[in-house]
Structure formats: C-alpha cells, structure tokens
Amino acid sequence: MKPLHRLLTNRLIKLIANLLKVACYAFHYAYPDTRFTLPARASPLIRSRRPATIPRVLWQTNFTDRVTLPVYLNYLFNRLMAPDFEYRFMTTAARADFIAQYYPGEIVRHYSRLQIGAAQADFWRVLVLQAHGGVYLDIDAHLTWPLGRLLGSDRQSLFIRTKRDALNNFFIASRPHSPELEAVIRAINANIEANTLEGVFDMTGPGVFNRVLDMGSLDTVLYRYACTQGSFTNEHFQYIDKPQGKWNREQKRVAVVREEAA
Prior knowledge:
The protein is an alpha/beta fold. The protein has one domain (4-250): Alpha-Beta Complex (Spore Coat Polysaccharide Biosynthesis Protein SpsA, Chain A). The chain has 11 helices and 11 strands.
C-alpha cells in the first residue's frame, strides 16, 4: 500500500487542476482563437548529475503543437514535476519522419497504413522508447509525483496499472532496447499485417500490452500514484481544432488500418 500522502497529493493536484480547467472556459470564451505553442525540444530546468538507467527524457505527441490554455497548463505542470528531464514533442508529421529514419522497411510500411492519429501515436510511443528510452506521457496526462523520485536511478522500466488491474499505455517508462517493448512492437506490427482486429484499443493500444506482457513479471504502479488523465484538460479543449474528434468516434467512420494496394 502506498503512503497516504501520495494519495492526498494526487487529490490536491486534481482539485487545483479542475479549478483551472473551469477558469479556462472563461479564457477561451473571451479569446477563442488564442493558442499556445508546445516546444519540439526543451532542456531540463535542472541538470542532474545522478546516473539513471531510464534516460531523463519526457516524450509527448499530438496532432498539432498549437494548443489551448488547459493543454498548455498541463504541459507546464509536467515540466515542474520533471524538472531534470529533457522535453521532446512530436507532431503527426514529425512522428512519421522519425519512424522513416529509425525503422525503415516493414515497420514504416505498416505504420503508414494506420489512418487514425491515436493508433499512430500508440505505435510511435513504443518505437521511440525502444530507440531512445525515456518516459512517454499522453498529452492530456499529468504526473502526480515527481518523476525523478518515482523512477529512481536503477529502474529499467515502469508500467501503470488501472483500477481493474490491467495495463495501460498513457504512461510508459523504459530504458532503450527493452524486451518488453520489443514484444509489443512485434505484436502491433503483426496486428497491422493481419488487419483482423477492430478498434484502436486492440490493434495498437492497451489491448496489445495486456495480451503479450505478463504483469507479474513487470515493474508496475497503480496509475494514481504516478499519473492521471483529464484533470487540467478534457476532450473539448484537446480536440477543439480537430473536426474528426477523439479516436473512439473517428474509428466508427474510418478503418484503423488502410488496406494495402494489390
């Protein structure tokens, strides 16, 4: 059982974040077209001299780097909670360029068949961590405990568990060249090749993690003691400039995987 102060910290952060989110409705009512730019790369706020098995890099992605105030506040909060981590951000185009550079051949061919941004982001996050290591965090997720203290210096990976005791992929911490991520990559690649599954969740998302990884052999933490989603922002603010909306609605109109040309 985690100490009570970890849970209280989580609750306090969520309370403050939700109050800010409410205030942001008034801000964007007054300034509906105002957007804030997420940097492609930002140096650590504090330089750490301690060695760490998991590289001190925080990775995020989104369909655009021009975001609403709640998403930007979420980004700023994560920077404060991970002051000794470099920040790296990629848009849809940058993700494709990265995969073409680091994973030529079959993987980039399969990645290019994904038609929904969330599915692309699912595949990219394990590919970028496998190549470089670090911590991946969804754009609407925020840390609930200082990241350096959460990971320590010797951990090789950390995965999050849901309340239903299942794995999720909105937070992943890993050293590069991980056998666990390699298993996920192979499974996603095979799913795209076969194209027999329906829905992002099972094709590229948490369903893959739960199918191919043994939770009993992983270093895991209940999500609320590491990070959570949707406190600073919500679907309205995250997808305000994306008419297709969230992936769970988009996949009802568009197949996750495009059929290959004969």
